[in-house]
Structures are given as C-alpha cells and as structure tokens.
Amino acid sequence: MSTEAFSTREFRDALSSFATGVTVVTCLDANGEPVGATASSFNSVSMDPPLILWSITKTAYSADAFINAKHFVVNVLSAEQMATSNQFARSGTDKFADVEVEQGIGGVPTLPGAITFFECEAWATYDGGDHEIIVGRVKGLRSMAGSGLVFYRGAYATAEAIPTLAPTETNDVSHFIDNYLLYYMSRATHQMGEEFHQLVADDGLTTKEWRVLACLYNENSMSLADLAKRTMVDQTTLLELSIELQKQNMARVQQLDAGTKVTGTAAGQERVAHLIEDYQKAESNALEGLDSDASETLKTMLQRIIKNTD
Ligand SMILES: Cc1cc2nc3c(=O)[nH]c(=O)nc-3n(C[C@H](O)[C@H](O)[C@H](O)COP(=O)(O)O)c2cc1C
C-alpha cells in the first residue's frame, strides 16, 4: 500500500513523461530454455568496468530465470519492432514461437532486427522493492545504424533529432559560399538525385521518361506546355517522347484546338509504381530530422522561388 502523497497512478504517469528506448532482455532458464521479457528500465551504470542495469518485476514468470542467469543479452529494439515488444510483454505465452533467434553469449538467444545487442555476464542483483535490479557486465556488443523504438507516455514513438542550424558568419566575404542559396539548392538536388536517378537508370528508363511518367501518374492529363515546364524538357523533345510512350501504351497524346494534351495510362502508372515508392523513401531519407511542418514549409519556399524566377 502506498502511503505517499501521490497515488500509484500519479507515480506511473509521472514516470511515463521520461521517454525511454525499448529492449527485450533474453537469457536461458535452469533447463536451458529461452526466456525473454520486454523492458524499458534498461540504463547505463558504469563505463569502467562497463556495466548496465535493468529491473524485472518479481512477479514475472521469468524473474527467477533472470535473477539466476549467468548471462543475458539486452536486445535494443528498432522502430520496426513494436510487434516484438508486445510479443515479449505477454506473460505466460510461448514468446519465442515464430521467432528465428541467433545465439549470443553463453548460448543466450538474440533477436534479429534489434539495433544493438549488449551481451552481458551477471554482475549483481539488488532488491528494488517489487522489482529486482539486475546489473550486468557488458562482455560484447554489436550496434547497427537505425532508429530505436521509443516508449513515451504509455505509447510507442520514434525519436526524431531536433534540427539545429549551424551559425553562419554573414558579414565575412570569405564565407560568401555559406549564404549562397543557389549552392545549397544545387548540392541538395545533386545529392538527393544521384542515387535515385541510378535506380531509374537501372530500371531501364531515362530521367526524362521517368519525369514524364511521374507527372502523368494517376492517369493525370497535362498540356504539352505545362508538362514541358514540369519535366524541364523542351516541347519538341517532349512531343517525340510522348508519342514514343503512346506506342508502348504508357501515355495518350491528343491534338486539341487548345493545344496538345498528354494523358497517363494505367500501364504507364504500373511501369513507375515501384519507382514512386523508391522516390518516397529517398525523399523521407533526405528530409530526416525535419518534422512534417518544416518539410511542407521547405516545399512552399521552393515553390515561391520557382514562381519568382519563372
Ligand atoms: C514497453 C514495455 C516496457 C516494459 N518494461 C518492463 C521493465 O522494465 N521491467 C519489467 O519487469 N517489466 C516490463 N514490462 C512488462 C514485461 O515485459 C512483462 O511483464 C513480462 O514480459 C512478463 O513476462 P513473464 O511473466 O512471462 O516473465 C514492459 C512492458 C512493455 C510493453
């Protein structure tokens, strides 16, 4: 029974304002059977020797196994492993069903897909009220790039870096390049486009064909003049290209009184569907660290520059 000036609920809620990562701690029980539990109580303790801790509720089925284990592994879950977190938080179930584990220190199972593995030797256990605090000495670690899963205010989340702007020296002539917008735009375009345009080329399309098919996606219709602006291809080349695409059933070209109209087709859409997905991934990688408001603002600002310089 709590005799404090706050309720257990208030205590839990207050603790939940402290964002943590999510781990699954694994070990072997006395019979050599794999054991695992989701834990957000993981934390660092000491650099020298390298020690970490986590705590397990004493009423967990797996508490004895963890308290007595010689070795355990802390698997730091990736942002894609919400289902794994839930699976290893479900008491009294076969948590390892359908999980293809690998073997870590002392034969302890490790979970593929985790972004970091801390392979630990038991160091000490301490009484921590209704939890047992387990301290491990890290004997080995493997860490991969990737975003970790976050637990915050009772829900899963992902961590985004808060962008910081490096200070620039505006009055210094030798740092003219630091404020040279055209340089930033060119370099951003070059770097962002390089890898993606290679995917387009590997897929057997020219950059111009990709741009036209992307503009006509969803069976979109555009005048030749608008399409020329959008794709940055001159109208003569564009007309030839559109007729070529029409032969392959990937576009329809119509000569109307108002001018030439080009319309996308289902076949054209299908031809670039996977490239659109690749592009969306490339764009979200390029915008990493910017929230959706900042990304929208960036696009609005670029649209303004396009309008002002048209
Ligand atoms: C995000 C999250 C974090 C958790 N952190 C802990 C923790 O640090 N310590 C703990 O004892 N239980 C924690 N739990 C609950 C345990 O995962 C759960 O009680 C345990 O797996 C029970 O399994 P068992 O009874 O089969 O041992 C957490 C659950 C979730 C969903």
What does this structure look like?
The protein is 35% helix and 27% strand. The chain has two domains: 8-158, Pnp Oxidase, Chain A; 173-308, Orthogonal Bundle (Arc Repressor Mutant, subunit A). The chain starts with 7 loop residues before the first helix and ends with a helix. A seven-stranded antiparallel beta sheet has the order 3-2-6-9-10-5-4. A three-stranded antiparallel beta sheet has the order 1-11-12, with no helix packed on it. Strands 13-15-14 form a three-stranded antiparallel beta sheet. The protein is α+β, with helices and mostly antiparallel strands and 310 residues long. The model has no long low-confidence stretch (mean pLDDT 92). It has nine helices and 15 strands. The structure holds flavin mononucleotide. The site of flavin mononucleotide has 19 residues, from strand 3 and strand 5.
Strand and helix map with partners:
Elements: H1 8-15, E1 20-21, E2 23-28, E3 34-39, E4 43-46, E5 51-57, H2 63-68, E6 71-76, H3 82-87, E7 102-103, E8 109-110, E9 116-128, E10 131-143, E11 149-152, E12 155-158, H4 181-202, H5 207-215, E13 221-223, H6 224-231, H7 235-247, E14 251-256, E15 259-264, H8 266-286, H9 292-308
Antiparallel strand pairs: 1-11, 2-3, 2-6, 4-5, 5-10, 6-9, 7-8, 9-10, 11-12, 13-15, 14-15
The chain binds flavin mononucleotide.
